[in-house]
């Protein structure tokens, strides 16, 4: 930048110079500066990234905990961050697209916080979406393009719920119950496993005595 300014000043002086000797000196200096500017190495991408990292300060934490609800017009995402209200407004940034948003909170207690949501359940209005900073909380307001209820926040979440439902939702009620019990047993703690084992043994005993006709 400094070299460019020097070159501009030399060019300006050239337009005012009338003496040949002065003009020759200025022309020599002009060529010298142009050559110096041309031979300057371009800034390395790594250096730019390092500068950006230094400007952020601290290290970056990915936010995983949040809450959300919705109204007819908005989907609202609540992110708890202690002391966020003390930051300058420009330190809390949210970028929206029609099906995503990402949040960056810079230099909060020496750390940076990020959260990214891709594949939102339905399209949102970029212009109508915004963020609000409250006490110990950031509220992200996604303006719905159509006023309709969202069952989930993202497409991935929806697919995950459908897959889970399909694992124990069958046409045979007893089979569905068995799948549900198996899932509870697999994911449960020791107490739940003991309870399910006890119920299983008791049902077997009742069945053997003819008390119940169907194996649960």
Structure summarized in a few sentences:
It is built from six helices and eight strands. The chain is an alpha+beta fold. It folds into three domains: 1-39, DNA Excision Repair, Uvrb, Chain A (Irregular), CATH 4.10.860; 60-144, Immunoglobulin-like, CATH 2.60.40.790; 155-196, no CATH class.
Fill in the keyword field for this structure:
Calcyclin-binding_UBL-bridge, 6 helices, DNA Excision Repair, Uvrb, Chain A, acetylation, elongated, 3 domains, 216 residues
Overall 3D geometry?
A: elongated
Number of structural domains: 3
Structural class: alpha+beta
**Helix residue percentage:** 40-55%
CATH architecture label name of the largest domain:
Sandwich
Overall mean pLDDT stands at: 81
Radius of gyration: 33 Å
What CATH calls the topology of the largest domain is Immunoglobulin-like
Our measurement of the CA-to-CA distance between the termini, rounded to an integer number of angstroms, reads 80 Å
Please tell me about this protein's structure.
This protein is 44% helix and 26% strand. The protein is of the alpha+beta class. It folds into 3 domains: 1-39, DNA Excision Repair, Uvrb, Chain A; 60-144, Immunoglobulin-like; 155-196, no CATH class. The protein has a 4-stranded mixed beta sheet with strand order 1-6-5-4, with no helix packed on it. The chain has a 4-stranded antiparallel beta sheet with strand order 2-3-8-7, with no helix packed on it. Strand 7 and strand 8 form a beta hairpin. The longest helix is centred in the C-terminal third of the chain and has 20 residues, at 190-209. The protein is elongated, with a radius of gyration of 33 Å. The termini are far apart.
């Amino acid at each position: 930048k400094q070299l460019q300014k020097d070159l501009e000043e030399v060019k300006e002086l050239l337009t005012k110079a009338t003496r040949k000797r002065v003009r020759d000196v200025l022309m020599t200096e002009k060529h010298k500066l142009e050559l110096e500017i041309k031979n300057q190495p371009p800034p390395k991408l790594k250096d730019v990234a390092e500068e950006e990292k230094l400007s952020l300060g601290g290290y970056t934490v990915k936010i995983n905990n949040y809450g959300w609800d919705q109204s007819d017009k908005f989907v609202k995402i609540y992110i708890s961050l202690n002391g966020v209200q003390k930051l300058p407004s420009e330190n809390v940034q949210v970028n929206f697209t029609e099906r995503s948003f990402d949040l960056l909170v810079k230099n909060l207690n020496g750390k940076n916080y990020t959260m990214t949501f891709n594949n939102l359940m339905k399209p949102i209005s970029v212009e109508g979406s915004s963020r609000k900073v409250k006490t110990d909380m950031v509220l992200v307001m996604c303006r719905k393009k159509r006023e309709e209820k969202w069952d989930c926040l993202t497409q991935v979440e929806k697919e995950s719920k459908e897959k889970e439902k399909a694992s124990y939702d069958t046409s045979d009620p007893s089979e569905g119950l068995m799948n549900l019990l198996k899932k509870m047993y697999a994911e449960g703690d020791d107490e739940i496993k003991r309870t399910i084992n006890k119920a299983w043994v008791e049902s077997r005993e009742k069945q053997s005595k003819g008390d119940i006709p169907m194996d649960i």
